[in-house]
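Postdoc handover notes: sequence design on the structure in folder B. Input tokens:
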């Protein structure tokens, strides 16, 4: 059973992914400058959260081999990561609007918390544009190579978040990224570092 070509589980997932945005409609459409400015944090945080959840899928598949729920997460990873990009784009829009002028935007670029955010966004744009089946077929093996750019982009997002307020935001950034980094370490150990059983003699 599908609706507009989508399974009910996918539609329900998108309802859940859209819930944080519902609380942002008022400040986005209103004329309260302070309320609009306060959207910088939630838009960025939800973008990072959904990015982290999407990127954890492969590691969870490895840790919980044979379980069904990591397969469900892996199946819907693209939806979650597209949602992350939408929140990141909204975060960028709020930032640009809040800064007000191009001169102020350029003047802030040398700051670590700013240039890392812009660079991560530049990487995520082609990833989002190719997050579809036609692009995957067109790029063939190059699609996976392109998608691996999400890893350095995630590191940039971590630095972007942690360096806010003179690096005063590193505790929440570490809490959010800790599980993802742990899964990356486990995957590295599992595929490259774990002891291998010796081959039986012929």
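Designed sequence:
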């Amino acid at each position: 059973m599908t609706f507009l070509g989508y399974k009910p589980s996918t539609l329900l997932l998108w309802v859940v992914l859209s819930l944080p945005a519902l609380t942002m409609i008022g400040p986005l459409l209103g004329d309260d400058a302070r309320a609009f400015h306060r959207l910088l944090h939630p838009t960025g945080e939800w973008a990072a959260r959904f990015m982290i959840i999407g990127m954890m899928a492969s590691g969870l598949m490895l840790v919980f081999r044979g379980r069904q729920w990591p397969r469900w997460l892996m199946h819907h990873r693209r939806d979650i990561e597209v949602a992350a990009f939408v929140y990141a784009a909204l975060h960028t829009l709020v930032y640009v609007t809040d800064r007000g002028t191009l001169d102020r935007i350029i003047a802030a670029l040398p700051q670590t918390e700013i240039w890392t955010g812009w660079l991560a966004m530049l990487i995520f744009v082609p990833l989002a544009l190719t997050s579809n089946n036609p692009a995957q077929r067109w790029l063939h093996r190059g699609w996976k190579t392109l998608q691996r750019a999400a890893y350095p982009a995630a590191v940039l997002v971590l630095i972007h978040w942690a360096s806010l307020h003179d690096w005063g935001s590193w505790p929440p950034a570490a809490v959010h990224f800790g599980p993802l980094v742990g899964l990356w370490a486990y995957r590295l150990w599992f595929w490259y570092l774990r002891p291998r059983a010796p081959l039986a003699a012929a």
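Context for whoever picks this up: The chain has one domain: 8-193. Don't rerun without checking with the PI first.
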